[in-house]
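Thread: "does anyone have the structure for this chain?"

Original post by V.I.:
We have the sequence but no experimental structure in hand. Need at least a predicted one for the grant figures.
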Amino acid sequence: MIRSLLLLVPAVYAVYYFNIHAQVQDVATPVILPLVNQLVRYFQSEEISISTPATIADTSVNSEVKPFTRHIVAVGDLHGDFPNALRVLQFSGVVDEKGDWTGDADFFVQTGDIIDRGDDTIKLFAWMDQLRAQATSTGGVVLSHLGNHEWMNAIGDWRYVYPTELKTFGSVQARQKMLSSGVIGSTWAANYTVASRLPLHPSLGPPNTPYPPQHSLHLEKDSSEFGSDQDRLEDYETSHLKEHELETGALSHSAISFVHGGLSPTYPNLQPFPTKINELGTSLLRKLQRREQPPPHPPNPYPGLPPDSTREEHLLYDANGPLWYRGWALDDEEKACKDVDEVLKKTGTRRMVMGHTPNFHNIVSRCDGKIIIIDTGISHAYGDSENLENVGKKQRWTEREVISAIYPDRQEIIADDEREVIGDFRGH
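Reply from O.Q.:
Generated one for you, tokens below.
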């Protein structure tokens, strides 16, 4: 039963460790061993190891240990099935036996398609709002996305609405009202986006900080504008350096994108990411919810987008847009791996996570884990440990990323990458 459950409702489990230190002797047993123990607990494996800082030359004088951890859990399509959703979130450690937020995750990401194909639409969206409030009270964050099925229902395309689900609303009119101006429609407008960018390091800003940075136009200013005001000029130059670091620095792409369908390499509105996409989503949803609700299809004709929808809004809902795109799942390996780096570069990310296209046998990880498709019925853990050492004015991070698929009876590591990152991250 558990295996069948996990084949229906996927989950991604990610754990990020940022252990900041300045001297080798300060990060011996008390810091490194607890991290190893936590990784072993999360991954259920004795194969997990951390590169100790003893292999890096120590050039610093003062030291301060500042551990930083980030736990992320992402879950794909839920499709109206509360019992299975509850089991998956319990399995992932997001909620307890009562369905309440545990505080074990810093971020919980749901990639859309909560609605359709099941009867628990009202219950699931209410539960997501409950978890959002509980997470906020403990310093956690819930990132929610609208999938293509939420958009279909907002348009009036009800092809996947079960009669039994409709009964939970009471009537067609009651359901239309709840999805437009009612409780569910209101939370869609306030709390759900089309895409997310989740940085893995605090220097890159909070979730959905746009990439590239939106103040890059300042770089075009002429320093002569400041005349003899040296303080203003120095502040301005420092600001430029910070913006440049956020756009092209060593950690600039240390982030993950989340979207329901996929980020097509030919989609024209990738930048700034995810700001442009989410602005289009906000404007289109507003038009759909504020128009007179058309009689649903079927049995009535397909209503389509509102007449005043812009070309960019049509592209958002197009097969090549982030709600419907399936190229990362269906293209051959050579094409996918040829295209993926340019999309990651444009979005300021290292990996992209999406649902939408199910694989009922395995998690789909392509191009060395740069593409991860979670609508597969399994959960996987993403681990990242970084050790920081001061080297003059620079800092050196030994970063390890482990991507694993976790089944009830086993774990499969599908990517294990290690890299060295050098930069000046102080003061972030």
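V.I.: this helps a lot. Confidence is low (pLDDT under 50) at residues 1-67, 216-226, 232-241, 376-396.
O.Q.: and The two ends are 46 Å apart (CA to CA).
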